[in-house]
Amino acid sequence: MRDERAEAKREARTLDEPAQEARELAERLGLAPYPVRYWVVDHDEMNELIAYGGFQQRYPHWRWGMNYDRQRKQDRHGLGKAFEIVNNDDPSHAFLQESNTAADQKAVITHVEAHADFFANNRWFGLYADRGEGGPNAAARLARNADRIAAIMARPDVDRDAVERLIDAVSALEDTIDQHSPVDAARSADGPGIDADVNDDGDDPLAAVEAQIDELDLSEAVRRDVFDDEWLDARGEDVEPEDPRPDVLAFLRDHGKRYDPESGKAVGREPWETTVIDALREEAYYFAGQKSTKVLNEGWATYWESIMMGGERFAGPNEFLTYADHMSRVLGSPGLNPYKLGFELWTHVELQAARRDVIDKLLRVAGVTPETFHSRVDLDAVAEALDPHPAIAGAGPATLDELADLAAEGDPRVDAETVDRALSARDAATGDASEDAPDDAPDIERYPWKLLTREGLAERHYVLSRPEHRGALRSVSRETLAERARYMFDVDRYATVEEALADVDRTAGWERMLEVRASHNDVTFIDEFLTEEFVRERNYFTYEYSRAAEEYRVASVDADDIRRKLLLRFTNFGKPTVVVLDGNFRNRGELLLGHRYNGVALDEASAKATVERVFELWGRPVNLATIRVEYSEEAIRRAKRRGREPEGKEVGVRFQYDGGEVTEHDLDPEIKDRIAADEIDYDTKPDDWLA
């Protein structure tokens, strides 16, 4: 063990310089990451971290062992290697696999720096914790929850199995939070909340009274005659939200009880039970940011990793092939690959913004209109003019004199101070200087980007000068040009195309990417930027299982269809959206949940199992309203003969669980209307969601 630790420490020391240089490069590119603490771990430690969701300490529960065993088997049989884990925290903690090659370690460090930037600047992560209070502080929060729950389990008056059953129930519902609101937003006046009605001893002063009422076994009518309605409502006996409540877990925390099998009745919770529910709900909010930005976040990290490792040669000459293989495997993974989809969408965002900037400049040239754009503008000459300055493109020891000339002219693309130190070091090395080389001479051979400012780096990596995008201006339609021209009022005009191109902002693409990074999640990102052009150029399509042909087939290449199907995969973490419709269903204290049906039916086996879990947090009968599509045998046979899809009938269903078996019932038409959607409503305005 001592030898293994020594090896890990040696490996960590070799990464000090790459980590420091990657941070400097990331900041020079315009990123603003959280501080990152890097740790080198072995296979077994990495498997443990993966099992714990990226943290070193979690609350006691059997599922961590199950996660660890599954990950260990995958690792052993080569079914997937974890190169790194990084968590959203301030500072972020990144764990690197000690068996990674040097190229892989550099790749994951640049990847991590971009993740840390995303964590620090994306508003969806801010829903978990107030940044003004010092950042998420997630490791400390999760460790505190672990200690609290461990202490509860150790209490002699608490059954450990009961705690685990409660954790099982809450974990099954962790995606039923309101991911569009801050973690504390659901603590409203219609529920007592975690801290209300609890005395200094941790006991509920009304619990004893409520227990005595339950022992009387009074009918609902008598209870209403004897006791004040407002008091009963506050105890959760008559909870009817005016609007559907999206945070099911908060509703159950505020109004739920615990079913007592001995008495066969619902009883008030013990304070420790509410503590456990709140702890797990808080953690669900922490992980919600990661779940709702998977494509956005991984694509962001992959984009900047490629800029640093490939574009800025952070991978050395003897490491580049290894890195290229690493990246090809990441982007070539089959299925819905968030790295590939995100990387391509971010590049599309960059391209759109850069192209828009150039078009806006060219449409201001005298004689250039949407109608004459393609005939009056030499687009080949434009492409050449947009190429980076040769000294900027080839920044390094060979272009040092040219960069010095630009710096002397005050060129904002050149880091004049670094160029001056590099010149002093070169002169000292060749004997042309009377002084020794400066102690802080930059290593411009390995890190040529030190010679450039962000403006210089933006020109060096300008999207319209990349070979695959040099013809992007040719594909702009007259309609798009007319739309851009429509919004040009009192603006500067140019006499020539050359004058217009001199004003092109090479940072326009990156600036737009930073704006999008700040406010979007996967749903809003895909909804806005998965355009018809994107789908056409990258050959995206949808597929589905055909009941008629009994096989999978291409269903559509239409951008709207592809966008809609992707949104279904990412809305509410790809899980069915369930809301609270009534906390006093049928005036019997039953809970009515509603599945917001959007054309995709529930997995009924999973739905029934979930209803049983909800019962453990409600303590009384639980109902789930949903809609299924039923196909008659005749409709299926007819469809097969005609080679078409069968027409089904949407039927409302209500599942009920009261502690025995899950039963199925017809759904009231009024409730069916409440949960049915005429069309899918994604409401994808992040500013509205975050208000």
TrEMBL record:
Residues 576-627 form the SpoVR-like C-terminal domain. It comes from Halorubrum aidingense JCM 13560. It comes from the Archaea. InterPro entries: Spore_V_R, SpoVR-like_C, SpoVR_N. Residues 12-353, 504-573 form the SpoVR protein-like N-terminal domain. PANTHER family: STAGE V SPORULATION PROTEIN R. Residues 1-21 are annotated as: Disordered. This is SpoVR family protein.
